[in-house]
Write a structure and sequence with these properties.
The complex is a heterodimer of chains A (about 240) and B (about 575). With about 240 residues, chain A is of the alpha/beta class. Chain A contains 7 helices and 12 strands. Chain A has one domain: P-loop containing nucleotide triphosphate hydrolases (Rossmann fold, 3-Layer(aba) Sandwich), CATH 3.40.50. In chain A, about 35% of the residues lie in helices and about 30% in strands. In chain B, α4 crosses α11, α10 packs across α11 and α13 runs parallel beside α14. Classes of the chains: A alpha/beta (about 240), B alpha+beta (about 575). β6 of chain A pairs antiparallel with β10 of chain B.
């Protein structure tokens, strides 16, 4: 089925591996299919940074696996929580030297820019967009088609209210989760609650993901094993105070 | 002439001196030569032995300016307007024209310098102009009529009539008579030959002309007699004309006025196609292009199109032009239609050819299509839309990264540029103040609860602080120092927030006094820190500040904080700002 879906434009289906067999089992192949539109929604408005972090994690993986620049399109409205910051992205594990930042005023311009980038021969490794504007079914089909023709993964960050039907191959909903700590009780790895809401040729699922910014890979958080001692230690500290 | 600078200074009180800059001289001469192309297509700058000159081949051109006198008058007048004082001469050969322009009668300096009395019958004048000790002579030559303006140092502006009168026209065939009494230096000989000839007793060209030729050839080689023959017209002296810089222009006049945008684009495409072979021949591409559309009522619509990288692709450039036409605020405004169009390449850059047809990106990982993409995005969405992040040397987070236009700035190297502390991937453009007071368990401690954008966040975990002091070498050094915390609330959302200043040193408390520090009488032993010392910074108060004391301004002697505004309230809790969010 997947071969039928993606082979009509002639290119072999390639995948962006997440490195997590547990998630791959829910997807149509060994990873997110390249040449497709993937939507990332925040669970609530306050979780927008978390969803941006998930996009950054996918981008970092794509930049490592593929050639070409990574392009990030940000419309002004979507930059509610600030603009991408070089040192932070570098610390996150994204190669900022290969990042192109496109800032547009209106969300419509951002969508136009995303399509233009996909249809150009710039050979982007990954295109990501933070777009607040309305993405209707027609537009999402256009973008999906453009991504399929280019063979480039397209990640779109959408507001939490964007529940309309779209042609996206996968739709993720991301919420923030307490970060893991190291043995000095300092922040070690960011964590998110990721639920795969929609997946073509796959099935939904829910995981707590952890971003390893050193190894540049996602992994499943060992929630039970990790949280209890940390919480217990904090209780002990409180009692001591 | 020939004095040392110190001697010259002693003679002339207000002497101005400049260092000689031969490269700039040559550039200026070249520009002047390009300008002289208005008189004749063959212009040769001469900056060899004997100073700077221009040779103009005016064969068949003089009648356009009213004959040779008319041309000379016109040229002299225009050069005079430039502030130059040319010496002009017209003769059959380039050598004679040069000699007459440089070494002819009316110069008084000539006899001083060369030590010869000019012959009274020489019909020539020179307007002399000298800068420092460099001389420029401009000579114009033709194969059959020669012509030489020569500028030297502008000592004093010559009167207009003298400028106009001051040129020499040697009648055809009279080079021998004209040259006879000129010094040997007029032959453009090298110094060595001149010195030898003067040792042998030769002073003037006429004496040389009378001598048998064979011994001279044996003694000096052919160079001397070749110069003489060239000046007399016996040997040819080809001029190597100046190549004007290539100019890529195309224009078209339409039989019927065009009105619609598609027609304009079509016409521009045709114009561009005529330009492409020239660009290909010179291996250059368009960087800046100007399209001019001439409306029937005389209005001209001019569009300038800049490209990120030089390009010869018609398709790409036409797309940019179409985008620009779409973005015109008032539309095309083709009321009566456009009757003509012109396309000028304002800037052309060299294209380094490379084989990119295999579809393999270069080492930088950026294929050639990227600059075209940047062009399209910037033309549709405005300049500076596409940017790259570049690191900067600074401790202040917002100063440590700049977003520069990707068209002009290649990718930066981000390795080994990491700052010490944790930095968020999303940074607010301007730090946002928290809604109200931040609850902290201890003063100067990490926050416990804060409210931002109307949402209350209970802090579950804190990393920090990381203190960042203002950079004293930048303006705004009296800003309070910042204590940054990475904060996670109970919902797992992470923020990067900082406290501006310490407790008792908030926004409404006196700011550190810039300028000279006033040392209080009781604080002589105080180690003065420029970044954190307030006028009130004595030991006792500092130690109390860290315990959250609210007494700051009241106890300070009035004289010690004369610059700082008096505090309006005793509220001294520091201000908290959100500066970024973590994923």
């Amino acid at each position: 089925m997947a071969r039928l879906e993606t082979s009509w434009h002639g290119a072999p289906p390639s995948y962006l591996p997440l490195g997590l067999p547990e998630i791959h089992r829910h997807l149509s192949g060994p990873g997110l299919p390249c040449g497709a539109l993937h939507e990332v929604l925040a669970a609530a408005h306050g979780d927008t940074p978390a969803s941006f972090g998930f996009i950054l994690a996918l981008m970092a993986g794509a930049v490592q696996a593929r050639r070409g620049p990574a392009v990030l399109v940000v419309s002004r409205q979507a930059a509610d929580f600030g603009l991408p910051y070089g040192h932070g992205l570098q610390a996150f594990g994204l190669d900022v030297g290969r990042l192109l930042l496109v800032r547009t005023r209106a969300g419509k311009d951002a969508l136009w820019a995303v399509e233009e980038i996909l249809r150009s021969d710039a050979g982007a490794a990954v295109v990501a967009g933070a777009v607040e504007s309305n993405l209707d079914l027609t537009m999402s089909r256009r973008l999906n088609l453009a991504a399929a023709t280019a063979g480039t993964p397209l990640l779109l960050q959408r507001p939490p209210s964007a529940t309309a039907t779209s042609a996206a191959t996968t739709r993720w909903r991301i919420a923030a989760a307490p970060a893991s700590r190291d043995r000095f009780d300092a922040f070690a790895h960011w964590r998110w609650q990721a639920s795969l809401e929609r997946c073509r040729n796959g099935r939904p699922g829910h995981w707590t993901l952890e971003w390893d910014h050193v190894a540049h890979r996602l992994r499943l958080a060992e929630v039970v094993a990790d949280r209890t001692p940390a919480a217990g230690r904090r209780q002990a500290v409180r009692r001591a105070v | 002439m020939g004095d040392l600078l110190s001697n010259a200074r002693s003679k002339v009180l207000d002497l101005q001196s400049r260092d000689a800059d031969p490269a700039a001289d040559d550039t200026a001469l070249r520009r002047l030569a390009l300008w002289c192309l208005r008189y004749t297509p063959v212009v040769m700058p001469w900056s060899g032995h004997g100073g700077h000159s221009l040779f103009l081949d005016i064969t068949g051109c003089a009648h356009l300016f009213g004959g040779e006198p008319g041309l000379l008058t016109d040229l002299a007048r225009r050069l005079h307007r430039f502030g130059l004082h040319p010496r002009l001469a017209v003769a059959d050969t380039a050598g004679t024209a040069w000699a007459m322009a440089r070494f002819s009668l009316s110069s008084t300096q000539w006899s001083d310098r060369i030590g010869h009395q000019p012959h009274p019958e020489e019909r020539a004048q020179r307007a002399s102009r000298r800068v420092g000790n460099r001389t420029h002579a401009t000579t114009a030559g033709t194969t059959d009529r020669d012509y030489s303006p020569s500028f030297e140092t502008p000592a004093a502006p010559a009167p207009q009539d003298e400028v106009v009168r001051g040129h020499i026209i040697v009648p055809p065939g009279e080079q021998g008579d004209a040259l006879r009494d000129l010094p040997l230096a007029a032959l453009r000989l090298d110094d060595e030959a001149q010195a030898t000839l003067s040792r042998l007793g030769f002073r003037r060209i006429g004496e040389l002309m009378r001598q048998p030729r064979a011994p001279f050839t044996a003694r000096f080689g052919t160079a001397l007699l070749t110069r003489l023959d060239q000046a007399l017209g016996r040997a040819p002296e080809p001029l190597s004309p100046l190549e004007p810089p290539p100019c890529y222009r195309a224009h078209a006049v339409f039989a019927e006025a065009i009105m619609t945008q598609s027609h304009v684009v079509e016409a521009t495409t045709r114009l561009l196609h005529t330009l492409i072979p020239d660009l290909e021949r010179d291996a250059v591409g368009v960087r800046v292009l100007r399209l001019m559309l001439f409306r029937l009522d005389g209005d001209v619509l001019a569009l300038e199109i800049g490209l990120a990288a030089p390009s010869r692709s018609v398709q790409h450039i036409i797309r940019l032009i179409a985008m620009r036409l779409e973005r015109l605020p008032m539309g095309l405004e083709a009321d009566f239609g456009f009757e003509a169009a012109a396309l000028h390449v304002l800037t052309a850059d060299r294209i380094t050819e490379r084989q990119a047809t295999l579809g393999i990106a270069d080492d930088a990982g950026e294929p050639t299509g990227l600059s075209a993409l940047i062009d399209r995005l910037e033309h549709r969405l405005g300049a500076g839309t596409v940017r790259r992040l570049h690191p900067r040397q600074s401790y202040i987070p917002e100063r440590a990264v700049v977003a520069l236009p990707a068209a002009e700035h290649p990718a930066a190297d981000w390795r080994h540029k990491a700052p010490f502390g944790t930095r968020p991937p999303l940074l607010l453009a301007v730090p946002e103040q928290t809604d109200d007071d931040v609850l902290a368990s201890v003063p100067d401690g990490p926050p416990r609860r804060f409210r931002w954008r109307g949402v209350q966040h209970d802090v579950a975990h804190v990393d920090g602080p990381e203190r960042i002091a203002p950079e004293w070498w930048h303006p705004g050094q009296d800003a309070p120092e910042r204590d940054y915390y990475v904060v996670e609330d109970t919902a797992g959302r992470r923020f990067w927030l900082y406290r501006a200043g310490r407790y008792g040193q908030g926004a409404e408390s006196p700011r550190p006094v810039p300028g000279p520090l006033v040392v209080l009488s009781g604080a002589k032993d105080l180690a003065v820190e420029p970044s954190s010392t307030t006028a009130a910074g004595c030991h006792s108060e500092r130690s109390e500040e860290s315990f959250g004391s609210v007494r700051t301004a009241q106890e300070i002697p009035r004289s010690a904080r004369d610059d700082s505004p008096a505090p309006t309230s005793s509220q001294a809790s520091p201000t908290w700002f959100i500066h970024g969010v973590f994923p």
